[in-house]
Design brief:
By secondary structure, the chain is α/β, with parallel strands linked by helices. The chain has a domain at about 75-190. The chain is built from five helices and six strands. It starts with 9 loop residues before the first helix and ends with a strand.
Length: about 190
């Protein structure tokens, strides 16, 4: 259906016909721009629109980051924004403010219990990205003191038959070059 007036020129009518067919084809195009439901191939384009760096993030983390970017920027400089930014990468992490750990005023840390879930990957890039996001979300005077990592409590029963010597050596080693401080807490409880 054309909206051209009856006295339109032949050239204008030809342009209207060609563009009309193109517009009808666009109506059939499935273009979902919601970062939570769109195809994963669209995510880099959405990140570009919002000026976000989504490298070194899983697809689920990319979706959450793009989805929450506007809210984080709207509340930038608040504790809410810092918590929201931290939850994008480490959902089980918490913020510990300076008065909760006898730190210097306006300093804060991120407490993280490392999951025993083997599908979760804790690599250097993930901590660098979190450090970057927290520094974007915090206000200017606040200082991020780093991550405090702890291992989940583990319990195990070992039945020894016939006696013998049981010697357990557990070594945890983390080597992250993220520009943030790390403290690792943890232990394993064995009942023999």
């Amino acid at each position: 259906m054309s909206l051209l007036p009856p006295n339109a020129t032949k050239e204008l009518r030809a342009t209207d016909t060609v563009l009309g067919a193109r517009i009808e084809a666009l109506k059939e195009l499935d273009l979902d721009l919601n970062p939570l439901t769109c195809k994963k191939e669209i995510l880099p384009h959405l990140a570009f629109i919002y000026s976000l760096d989504i490298s070194n993030l899983s697809v689920d983390e990319q979706r959450q980051y793009i989805h929450n970017a506007f809210e984080i920027r709207t509340h930038q400089g608040t504790l809410y924004s810092v918590k929201k930014a931290l939850k994008l990468i480490f959902n089980e992490a918490t913020i510990k403010e300076w008065f909760n750990y006898a730190g210097e005023p306006y300093h804060f840390k991120a407490d993280l219990i490392l999951s025993a879930d083997v599908s979760k990957i804790y690599d250097e890039a993930k901590f660098k990205k979190t450090n970057f996001l927290l520094n974007l979300a915090k206000n200017t005077r606040s200082v991020f003191d780093g991550f405090e990592l702890s291992l989940p409590n583990a319990k195990g029963n070992i039945n020894l038959m016939g006696g013998g010597v049981f010697d357990v050596h557990i070594q945890n080693e983390l080597d992250f070059n993220t520009g943030a401080n790390f403290k690792l807490y943890g232990g394993v409880v064995w009942t023999v």
